[in-house]
Amino acid sequence: MGVAASTSRPGRSGRSVLTVPAWHPRRRDHVPVTPVTPPRGGLYDDRVPPTGDDAEREDAPGTPVPGGAGTLPADDSAARPPHAATAPAPAPAAGGAEPVGGRPEPGADPGASPYGPATATAVEDPAADPAADVDEPTDAPGGETADEPDEPRRETFLRRLLGDDARTLDATPRDRRNGWLWALAVTVLGGVLRFWDLARPHSLVFDETYYVKQAFSLLARGYEAAWGEDPNAAFESGDTSSLGTDPEYVVHPLVGKWMIALGMQLGGGVESSFAWRLSAAVVGTLAVLMVARIGRRIFASTALGTLAGLFLAVDGLAIVHSRISLLDPFLMFFALAAFGALVLDREQARRRLADRAAAVLDGGGTLRWGPGLGFRWWRLAAGVLLGLAIGTKWSGMYFLAVFGVMTVLWDMGARRAVGVRLWHVAAVVKDGLLAFVLLVGTAAVTYVASWASWFASDNAWNRHWAEANPDQGVQWLPPALRSWWQYHQDMWLFHNGLETPHSYAAHPVGWIVQWRPTSFWYPTEVSGLTGEQAQAACGADACSQAILAVGNPLIWWAGAASVLVALFWLLRYRDWRAGAVLSGIVAGWVPWFAYAHRTIFAFYSVAFVPWVVLTLVYVLGLLVGPASPDDSERDRRGRRRAVVAVGVFAVLVVAAGLFFYPVWAAWVVPWQQWHIRMWLPTWI
Fold first, then answer.
1. Residue 498 has what pLDDT?
2. Does residue 107 contact residue 300 with C-beta atoms inside 8 Å?
3. Residue 505 — φ and ψ, nearest 5°?
4. How far is residue 259 CA from its own chain's centroid?
5. pLDDT exceeding 90 applies to what percent of the chain?
6. Average pLDDT along the chain
7. With contact defined as beta carbons under 8 Å apart, do 415 and 354 qualify?
8. How far apart are CA 563 and CA 632, in angstroms?
9. What's the pLDDT score for residue 189?
10. Could you say which of 20, 101, 352, 551 is the most buried, measured as most Cβ atoms within 10 Å of its Cβ?
């Protein structure tokens, strides 16, 4: 329920009491003193029973918290958000059972999403509903409970680990069909914006002068060879005769350039600027589909997942990088795919844990450290994808580090949720060590393998450095690896020492609000037109043609505020979703503050734009909140207003995307039309 949807009613003392739906995260800290029966709850509530990764607070005496996680205060008004400070606990029903609407189970949701119809009915008598009378685990070792639950233990664990809305997300063929159709719909929109006149301009734009020509060199020579003087004009016309055989010193790995080369091979060859950019457009379009599907899985909502995909489809930074062949869109693509694999791994591992932990306890055993979870194929896939990300740009290493910690923390929470006493140690030993091998080890092997063409070549840069310098380098490595390692040391020194002044260099503190975007293209051949030539080109006395790598300002400005909200929700309520959507921002943005001394650019932020979108949608979901059968008419009316407000915001985001599209896609427009799109003086 959104803030606007909260209602007031008189309390017993006569003062006004603000009521907020009990299952919403902003009511996470309100736990009644008496034991309650959990009804089917809400979209973002993972509080009771615990989902594990949303670790309950242990800092106050009072109400017992399920899962052996400590206690909560009986009177927690000081710890509640201001708008929930005085909400009283409902009176117990007959027989000591709490009426439906008291304390919920994690993720349960009568509407399956903030926008969907109700799928569960309220239970008039909790004692009559087996699923509503779940005993909570005690501190007994091995995960035993004080009383056997009325439902199978496996089902109890699944509800604690996943939540009902996640479990029922694909419950029917219609749910599965809608989940794909809406995601594909926004993907089609994203594809149109990325592929429409992709060949414009037929010129090497910005750093395409390096990466496109290097990609062709990989096709022609197997390594990056040097070009003759001023080769661009000839290259753009399809003439590659100036490509030599001497190696060229380059400072980025090979994967992104091989991706560009693949597009050139499939799209029509070197003479086609469409072919230069084909791979970037494909991965940019697929990123829209992945964000929609990943968002749906994280938020357990087709509507929110679709909204995330829609926002990425109309973001300018994502569009520009899908229409220009740089390395950064491939870094983003592989990191996002790895993140999606880990989200799927989280769900699969929790289902295994529920099955195996229940089997152990039903057989009379104890959990001790909990069961093993078998081989994690999605983790292996994530390791390969992260290796490809690092093989595109070294900044992919930060995604490997952040995602690796995140997935082990998820395992810790899962083991805690089923009652493992030493859950932190168990997760490190039984999950973390294997996770390190699967993620770090696989990524390392993949990265080394991505240099296969360099190893296979006799003429690549530094390929025979070890033979020429037998007494230098890492002596215990074989010559090929010693040469390769020395090459990497040279690359590191270059990257860490790059301090060449540039007019579009930007400190990372401004990236999150797109303070100083990078101008990729603004040719004087167009801006210098006058008189009849200008009239013929754009219908005005002065023309402009621009490619400005600036994000959709509504997405980024609202996203910057959403980062603060999500960070608060993570620290205050321990919502795993907040940590998940922030993870890519931490990996893709925060490390650059350590390199603020060198020349860096705001367009690097395309690497974490999917997580800016997911963070924004996460907060919009908090504002809307889930529906409840116990809502008053005023509550329902307030929620409808919140849904409308989010819908209006989405329309404005799309409108902003269409408004800025000419300066993202190199349209020739009147100078005045270009100028009114420069909302900040730092954009020029």
1. 79
2. yes
3. -60, 140
4. 22
5. 70
6. 82
7. no
8. 32
9. 98
10. 551
